[in-house]
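REVIEWER CHECKLIST
Item 1: Sequence provided? yes
Item 2: Single chain? yes
Item 3: Sequence as submitted:
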Amino acid sequence: MDLIYETVHGSRAFGLAREGSDTDLKGIVVGPPVWYLGPDPGPEQVELGPDHVRFELRKFLRLAARANPMALEMLFADPSDHQGLEDAGRRLLEVRDRFVTAQVGDTFGGYALGQLKRIQTHRQWLLSPPKAAPVRADFGLPERPAVAKDQLGAAEALLERDGVLDASPAFLATLGKEKQYRSARARWQQYQQWKKSRNPKRSALEAKYGFDTKHALHLVRLQRMAVEILETGVVQVRRTDRDELLAIRDGAMTYEQLLEVCASNDARIRTARAASDLPESVDGDFVEALCVELIERVRGWR
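Item 4: Structure as written out by the authors:
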């Protein structure tokens, strides 16, 4: 593998690191010829450690073309955070503005709402933890399914596709109960995994403030970045609102205030997206040509 670009990412890149913060590294590599000319594709990414990931070029370009927040943050990281930069990496950074599109409203905004959902779920588990694993009897179901699993799957697929299903009321009722039961089982398993893998520092935040304030910090950061990019076209990774964001991390907002701010910011994102002059998407021909160019540069095929 040839590393063409690597940068600090995460809290240190955002200017939000504190004593003890991890150093998160993200890189981009071009693989050996066999990855591109052989019968089997190479890996899409290589994990060098829990906080050190390198993406194969094609995977990275797909992420960037979809306005993935992590990919754009890598492209626009402050030069002082660059840990490695070769000729092909410089060429990629030269054209990074071509990856800035109105899709950031969907991706940055969507990731922010994903953070909110985690906050809400974890808060619910914290304040009112499930007491026992759901069982089929809780949903009026027999111990053994009365309908074969493949039949249920086929019926659900038809219902999702067509919106209606030609079946008896009894079968439709059973189908609904089975879905409710599976959903409850999935939530229970998520709860068990959350308890097992909780980060002690994050647990302390949740216990102190009633919700994960670090998730809240990044929720607000992502929403603010979405508005900034849509309105100005500038991706500001190193945050000038550092003090405000760290205050959120330190409990400056109540849970109720966070919900209000999140809703207000979400509305701003939708307004900014509708008025944005940014292109709707990245030119696919440009991405394809860039990918070929960078691989040829590294492999000496040109």
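Item 5: Key structural point noted by reviewer: The CA atoms of residues 9 and 24 lie 5 Å apart.
Item 6: Recommendation: ____
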